[in-house]
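Support request from a user on the community tier.

User writes: "When I paste my C-alpha coordinates into the form, the page sometimes reloads and wipes my input. The last time it worked, I copied everything first. Here is what I submitted, just in case something in the input itself triggers the reload:"
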Protein backbone atom coordinates (compact mmCIF):
# COMPACT_ATOMS: atom_id res chain seq x y z
CA UNK A 1 0.00 0.00 0.00
CA UNK A 2 1.04 3.60 -0.59
CA UNK A 3 0.19 6.87 1.08
CA UNK A 4 -0.03 9.70 -1.42
CA UNK A 5 0.10 13.25 -0.12
CA UNK A 6 -0.60 16.05 -2.57
CA UNK A 7 -0.18 19.74 -1.80
CA UNK A 8 -2.23 21.73 -4.32
CA UNK A 9 -3.71 25.16 -5.00
CA UNK A 10 -7.06 25.62 -3.19
CA UNK A 11 -8.92 26.58 -6.37
CA UNK A 12 -7.95 23.22 -7.95
CA UNK A 13 -9.36 21.11 -5.12
CA UNK A 14 -12.89 20.56 -6.56
CA UNK A 15 -11.41 19.35 -9.85
CA UNK A 16 -8.85 17.08 -8.13
CA UNK A 17 -11.48 15.66 -5.75
CA UNK A 18 -13.80 14.80 -8.65
CA UNK A 19 -10.97 13.25 -10.67
CA UNK A 20 -9.85 11.11 -7.73
CA UNK A 21 -13.42 9.98 -7.05
CA UNK A 22 -13.92 9.15 -10.74
CA UNK A 23 -10.65 7.15 -10.64
CA UNK A 24 -11.98 4.97 -7.83
CA UNK A 25 -10.43 6.58 -4.76
CA UNK A 26 -12.90 5.87 -1.97
CA UNK A 27 -11.53 7.90 0.91
CA UNK A 28 -9.37 10.96 1.36
CA UNK A 29 -8.37 13.32 4.12
CA UNK A 30 -7.85 17.01 3.44
CA UNK A 31 -6.38 19.87 5.39
CA UNK A 32 -6.05 23.56 4.74
CA UNK A 33 -2.36 24.36 5.06
CA UNK A 34 0.04 27.20 4.33
CA UNK A 35 3.38 26.73 2.63
CA UNK A 36 5.96 27.94 0.23
CA UNK A 37 8.17 26.34 -2.37
CA UNK A 38 11.01 27.57 -4.52
CA UNK A 39 9.25 30.87 -5.19
CA UNK A 40 9.44 31.71 -1.44
CA UNK A 41 6.10 33.50 -1.40
CA UNK A 42 4.78 36.33 -3.52
CA UNK A 43 4.99 40.12 -3.55
CA UNK A 44 1.77 42.07 -3.97
CA UNK A 45 1.35 45.72 -4.85
CA UNK A 46 -1.36 47.95 -3.41
CA UNK A 47 -1.98 51.67 -3.11
CA UNK A 48 -0.15 51.67 0.19
CA UNK A 49 2.94 50.04 -1.27
CA UNK A 50 4.13 46.52 -1.73
CA UNK A 51 4.04 43.67 0.75
CA UNK A 52 5.16 40.08 0.77
CA UNK A 53 3.13 36.99 1.57
CA UNK A 54 5.67 34.35 2.55
CA UNK A 55 3.33 31.37 3.08
CA UNK A 56 0.52 30.76 0.60
CA UNK A 57 -2.77 28.94 1.20
CA UNK A 58 -2.73 25.35 -0.04
CA UNK A 59 -4.83 22.19 0.32
CA UNK A 60 -3.21 18.94 1.47
CA UNK A 61 -4.90 15.77 0.23
CA UNK A 62 -3.92 12.42 1.75
CA UNK A 63 -5.04 9.07 0.35
CA UNK A 64 -3.94 5.49 0.98
CA UNK A 65 -4.33 3.12 -1.96
CA UNK A 66 -3.21 -0.32 -3.07
CA UNK A 67 0.30 -0.17 -4.53
CA UNK A 68 -0.94 -1.12 -7.99
CA UNK A 69 -3.22 1.95 -8.02
CA UNK A 70 -0.59 4.47 -6.87
CA UNK A 71 0.63 5.46 -10.34
CA UNK A 72 -2.93 6.04 -11.57
CA UNK A 73 -3.66 8.26 -8.57
CA UNK A 74 -0.47 10.28 -9.16
CA UNK A 75 -1.34 10.69 -12.86
CA UNK A 76 -4.86 11.85 -11.98
CA UNK A 77 -3.54 14.43 -9.51
CA UNK A 78 -0.94 15.68 -11.99
CA UNK A 79 -3.53 16.11 -14.74
CA UNK A 80 -6.18 17.77 -12.60
CA UNK A 81 -4.00 20.00 -10.36
CA UNK A 82 -1.74 21.54 -13.02
CA UNK A 83 -2.45 25.16 -13.97
CA UNK A 84 0.45 25.99 -16.36
CA UNK A 85 0.63 29.40 -14.65
CA UNK A 86 4.20 29.10 -13.39
CA UNK A 87 5.38 27.95 -9.96
CA UNK A 88 3.05 27.11 -7.10
CA UNK A 89 1.00 24.20 -8.46
CA UNK A 90 2.23 21.97 -5.63
CA UNK A 91 3.94 18.66 -4.94
CA UNK A 92 3.09 14.97 -4.61
CA UNK A 93 4.77 12.76 -2.00
CA UNK A 94 4.53 8.97 -2.02
CA UNK A 95 5.27 6.89 1.08
CA UNK A 96 5.06 3.17 1.83
CA UNK A 97 2.33 2.04 4.24
CA UNK A 98 3.20 -1.01 6.34
CA UNK A 99 -0.16 -1.62 7.94
CA UNK A 100 -3.71 -0.26 8.06
CA UNK A 101 -6.37 -1.23 10.60
CA UNK A 102 -10.03 -0.20 10.42
CA UNK A 103 -10.90 0.76 13.99
CA UNK A 104 -14.58 -0.18 13.83
CA UNK A 105 -14.10 -3.78 12.61
CA UNK A 106 -10.44 -4.59 13.20
CA UNK A 107 -10.00 -5.41 9.50
CA UNK A 108 -6.40 -5.10 8.40
CA UNK A 109 -4.50 -3.96 5.33
CA UNK A 110 -6.25 -4.56 1.98
CA UNK A 111 -9.56 -5.45 3.69
CA UNK A 112 -9.51 -2.14 5.56
CA UNK A 113 -9.30 0.05 2.49
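"...and here is what came back when it finally went through:"
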Amino acid sequence: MKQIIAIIRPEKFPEVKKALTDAGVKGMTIREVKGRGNQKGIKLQSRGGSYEIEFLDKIEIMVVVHSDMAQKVMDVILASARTDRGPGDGKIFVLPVDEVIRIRTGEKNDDSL
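Agent notes: The reload is a front-end session timeout and is unrelated to the input. The two ends are 10 Å apart (CA to CA). Residues 9 and 58 are 5 Å apart (CA to CA). Escalated to web team.
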